[in-house]
Design brief:
2 domains, globular, three-stranded parallel sheet, 7 strands, 229 residues, four-stranded parallel sheet, Rossmann fold, alpha/beta
Length: 229
């Protein structure tokens, strides 16, 4: 079994989901007492969060340093446990001087959406991700039509995200997301473009399929780790 590297703590509540799902999937494949071989590099997310949309260079420097540290531990592949940080990974990957495979959340989503022949999707993500446009741009480059919530909804989403990052789940937030999804009647799927949103949004809240980048990353990593890809 190959070793999977995780850059986590970004935020810590969703990193737990990666760790859990990787072990569950490996055990489901192998049975017995098997679990995933994981190297977890957990970072302090505070400074990264405070720099989104303000200081790109600071985030690039932090991410590069942390990834180089993870790579020095010699995992066979790695995942970044934060969709937003994939923007910065694409900016600094040439400075890593590594051929260790990464399972890129946004690219995996684009491939999945195309394979399912979806045409138009609703992207739910952090205000930064929605307003920066890097996630939507990659999907659009793959021929997909992307709808994002309006400014008022993006503010509300930001408030909910702050709660989730502090491990607080509020019932009214579930109602909000259910109503938001229902208000978009001409979409083929919903992409959960924030790693915390699967903690609060489930299939019972949507009449169209939910696409979770965490699941796609975990599946790809486990297939690779078990020699199936």
């Amino acid at each position: 079994m190959k070793t999977i590297g995780l850059l986590g703590g970004t935020g810590w509540t969703s990193t737990i989901t990666y760790y859990t799902k990787l072990n569950q999937l490996v055990n489901a494949r192998l049975g017995g007492y098997h679990s995933a071989k994981i190297l977890l590099k957990s970072v302090d997310y505070h400074d990264i969060m405070n720099h989104y949309g303000q200081n790109h260079e600071a985030i690039e420097d932090t991410l590069c340093t942390e990834l180089l540290d993870l790579i020095s531990m010699d995992p066979d592949c790695f995942l970044i446990c934060c969709n937003s940080l994939h923007k910065y990974y694409d900016m600094i990957k040439g400075h890593l001087y590594s051929d260790i495979p990464i399972f890129h959340a946004v690219e995996l989503v684009a491939e999945h959406l195309k394979a399912q022949q979806y045409k138009k999707i609703l992207l739910l993500a952090t205000p930064f991700t929605l307003e920066d446009g890097f996630f939507a741009k990659i999907l659009e480059e793959h021929g997909l039509q992307v709808v994002i919530p309006i400014a008022e909804d993006r503010i509300k989403i930001g408030t909910i995200l702050d709660d989730l990052l502090n491990n607080t789940l509020k019932e009214d937030a579930k109602t909000y997301f259910k109503d938001l999804i229902a208000s978009h009647t001409d979409i083929d799927a919903v992409v959960l473009g924030c790693t915390e949103f699967p903690l609060i949004i489930d299939e019972n809240m949507s009449s169209v399929p939910l696409v979770d980048p965490v699941d796609l990353q975990v599946q790809a990593a486990v297939e690779y780790a078990l020699g199936e890809a």
